[in-house]
Each structure stands twice: as C-alpha cells, then as structure tokens.
Amino acid sequence: MENIALIESFSEFKDDKLIDRVTLMAILEDVFRNALKKKYGSDDNFDIIINPDKGDMEIWRRRVIVADEDLDFENEEITLTEARKIEPDFEIGEEVSEEVKLIDLGRRAILALRQNLISKIHEHDNTNLYKQFKDLIGDIYTAEVHHVRPRAVILVDDEGNEIVLPKEKQIPSDFFRKGDNVRGIIENVELKGNKPQIIMSRTSEKFLEKLFEQEIPEVFDGLITIKGVVRIPGEKAKVAVDSYDDRIDPVGACVGMKGSRIHGIVRELGNENIDVINYTTNTQLFITRALSPAKVSSIKINEETKRADVFLKLEEVSKAIGRGGHNIKLAGLLTGYELDVIREGNIAEEEDDVELTEFSDEIEAWVIEEFAKIGLDTARSILKQDVNDLVRRTDLEEETILDVIRILKEEFED
C-alpha cells in the first residue's frame, strides 16, 4: 500500500472528528516519528515531508556510506555495496537518502499507528473541548436532555458534546423529559482522566444574574448594574440593582409593567419569588429595603461584629422573617449583616404573652414549628393575624389554624 493510500485511510478521522487536515498531518507526523523511534531506535536521521493539500506524506532516511567491513550502526550507516545498488557512482562518506514506505514498517506497526492516531486525536479533541468550555464558564448555555438519571441529567448540545446537570444543581421543582431543552450556566469544567466533564447549574446566583442580562435590555447595555444576588433556589431570591443614570428607575425597569419583564425569569426558575430592590451605600436604608415587605421601625448596627438589631412592630415581624425564614435569611446574605429581630409592642401585652411551646400538650409540635417558620412563636402574635393570611403563609389547613386560635383564646379568657 502506498503512503497516500494509508494517509487517506487514516484521514477518515478528520471527517468524524471535525479536525482540520493541517492539524491531522501534524498529529500524523508525531505518531510516525514515535513509530520510527520504536523500530529504528531513533528518528534523528529521518525527514518527514507532509503535503496537507494532497493529503500525502513521505518519509526519507538519511545514512552515511561506509566500507562494507566498517558497518556499525545500521540505522545511520549503509555499506558501499548497498549504496551502489541505489546509485552506481556513490562513494564512501557521502550521504544516501532512501524513501521509507509505510508498509515497510510491518502490518503490526501500522495497526499500532492507527490506534495511536485515534488516541492522539481524542486527546486533541478533549484539549480543544476543555479550552472551549473553560471560556464559557459563567455563561448561559442551552442543551437537550439526552438521559435522565437519579443523580444527574445528561444533556447534549448541537455539536454532540455531553453536559452534566447534577441533581444538586437543579431547582427542586425541575422536571425533565428526554428531548427537553434546558438552560443553565456552565459552572465548571473538570478533567476526569483525559476527558473533560462539563458541569451545568440552574441553582447558581450567576444564572439569575445572567437571566437578568438576557431579559432586561438596560442590564445588558450596562445602564443598570446588578450589585448583588442571593437565592434559595425555587423559593425566593433578592436582587439589588443600581443605575448611574438618575432618569432610570432600576427596579421599575427590571420588573416591568405588572411584572411583564421579570415574569419570564420567574417562570424559568420554577416560580421563584424574586424581590428586586434599589441598592444604596447607606447600610441602614439597604437593610430596610432588603427586609421588604416588612416595615422597619429602626435599626441598630454593630460594624465590628457585622450584626444589626432590627426593631419591628409585632405585626411586621412575621413579614420580615418570611415563610420558612427565607426573607430574613436572604436579607442578611444580601447586606452582609446578621440580622436579629427585636419586637416592639405593648409592654403589658408582651408581659402577658405566652410562648407557643407552652401549649405543647394541646398543640402538636409540627404545628408549632409551622408557625415558628413565619416568625410566630407566641400566642398573641398568632391571635393578631388574619386566618386567611395564615392559611396562605403556612402549610396548615384552615381547620387546624382555627383549632389553634380557639386554644389560645381560651388561655387569655381564663
């Protein structure tokens, strides 16, 4: 088999792997030099001439002519008798160049060449893939669900690259079927052996930030800047925004008329509740805004410990804490302060109030816990609430809430 025929048989990898011919030829030269070293001990006296346009290559071995009895290094030397079979006028000391046909390497060596070539091309592809996705870290990417596994969803992009969306990087309400298109950010690229593993995330704060850039033109154009993003994926998020142009209302621009602009983002995140607030360097004001919808009476800040005592009227406490404590937790993360709620109210009433845990004989522990999640841990704090509001903010049935209210009222009537 001629060199060009062998090259063409190897070149089929070019089409399969979308590798350009020049790169393929460079890989081929490296592979063949390794084969020459293995067969002859050295490739120093070999010239490999590659013609990428024709897809051909030639291998030439250079040897010095010596007297027949002086042959010591067969790879680097050739006897005068053998040299004159090539050219009858050769003399001792001259250099002879002979073409080496690939077939001369032997069938086993050619099979090894082919296997080595496959390995080198895979290595080249993996290096390129790693570099390509390393540059995409932090960007939104879309891929199609190929396989759903218990611990991860395997996605495939338009170029056939495999992307992993681990269970812990999925929003709790996410549900995927084969063929679904999934959006997330490329969070990391890890090398597993020689193969890169591309990790996607839908729970990252960066994903929410990038969605704002995609959906809100003013953010994309830089007229509105995102100063901070915190999330409890699928539940609640807070985004602090600012604008250097006083004519722009950053919150209004992000939310849109009747929530029209932010609606698509909320839907993408499984109906995650998103609070957009105006950023300010005034710490007290920023904490106040972060605790919305609660109305804060006053704040006492300790800069050394990064703690803040937030004073609230009794009816505002549950709003500040939020369902499951999400609101106060996110406000603390956004502002960088640990927030402690201090209740304000009628002193006589507070002294007369009773901790909800005191009713553990009559009210089940899990019911008490449900009220505590929204900041209601005393009898009077519950009695001041509207029943319909309690049904909406807890996972309790109306009948259960009415039963609790009855028990608490009996305590104060007594």
Strand content: 25-35%
Order of strands in the sheet with the most strands?
Answer: 5-6-7-9-8
The CATH class designation of the largest domain is Alpha Beta
Question: What structural class should be given to the helix and strand makeup?
Answer: alpha/beta
Tally of individual domains? 4
- Classify the helix fraction into a percent range: 40-55%
- From the spread of the alpha carbons, the general shape counts as elongated
- Mean residue pLDDT: 84
Largest sheet: 5 strands, mixed, barrel
pLDDT < 50 stretches: none
Beginning-to-end CA distance, first to last residue: 106 Å
Radius of gyration: 37 Å
The beta-strand count equals 15
As for the CATH topology of the largest domain, it is GMP Synthetase, Chain A, domain 3
Number of helices: 17
Using the 3D structure, state the CATH architecture of the largest domain.
2-Layer Sandwich
CATH homologous superfamily of the largest domain, by name? K homology (KH) domain
GO molecular function: DNA-binding transcription factor activity; RNA binding
Protein name: Transcription termination/antitermination protein NusA
Domain Transcription factor NusA N-terminal: 6-125
Domain Transcription factor NusA first KH: 202-279
